[in-house]
Amino acid sequence: MASRWRTCLAVIARNEAATITRLLDSVRPFVDEMLVMDTGSTDDTVALAQAAGARTAHFPWIDDFAAARNAALDAASADWHVVLDADEWLIGADSGAALEALRDDAPAFVGTIGLMDHFDGGTAQSRLSRVLPGNIRYVGRIHEQPSHALPVKALDVHVAHDGYMPQRLHVKQGRNEQLLRSAVAADPDNAYLWYQLGKDLSVYDRFADAEEAFGNAVDRLASAGAGAPAWWSDLVARRLFGLKSLKRHADGMVFAETQLQICAESPDFFFALGDLLLDWAADEPQQADALVPMIEDAWRRCLEIGERPDLPGAVAGRGSHLAEHNLALLRALVPQKGRPE
User: In angstroms, rounded to a whole number, what is the distance separating the alpha carbons of residues 241 and 252?
Assistant: First the structure.
């Protein structure tokens, strides 16, 4: 008879009374155990976790996510660890079955899950390594990553996340920035950390500060002579949105021209480019005749590419209905002058 491998949900949490039960209820039927590592809650997080069937433990918060994650993994001590956050929850008809199947699968690979981020106005998709063999541990004070040399396998596990909704963002404001600034001070040539800092700042509409961070990420990657990482198209789209918001349209266009080949298959890139050009045309109507065909071409390119949920940070709809909606508005506002429908 095949070995049966034990699975455990491993969560770190602090003051997550509003969401912890939702997470635990969604996962409980499909794992052998649930472990919640509390890092200093002053609300009912611990009591609610216990009531939902989780084992709880305590670890003092030391401004280090990897340390807290690793403490939770040590306490969980299972063959497979499913690592989720308190503001996430399991979705999808097949997700539970995929978690249950781990019991019959030797822990010889790292599994990725599909994450759907809900934000004010839409959803974004990515895949993250969150299903780990029992001996794998994290590195990194913030935006920590599992350290391993194992094969990576995409699992049919899907998780939703609402930590970017307005009511959740204000609670976390400033926390990640402080940790990220400490991290980049310790490792100033790390382009990924600069990207994450820019991403955090842009979420709070601090576009000038975000542009400085994104610029540092671009410069560091260029200095290293490295190829474009998986997260690159997300940085580019976010940077273009920030430059639009700062009314630095020409700078955005110059940057976009350097990215046309690199981001050729990213609808998010072309969507953000069209958005920047439309804002430029609105601010400088004398430029509209030159800009409108470029706007139309950018959004048409989104539809040609289609949805790309495999790209980190891909916003749902930018390769389909959102681009089509923008094109329809453009057609209604601007005479087509013979351009094809």
Answer: 9
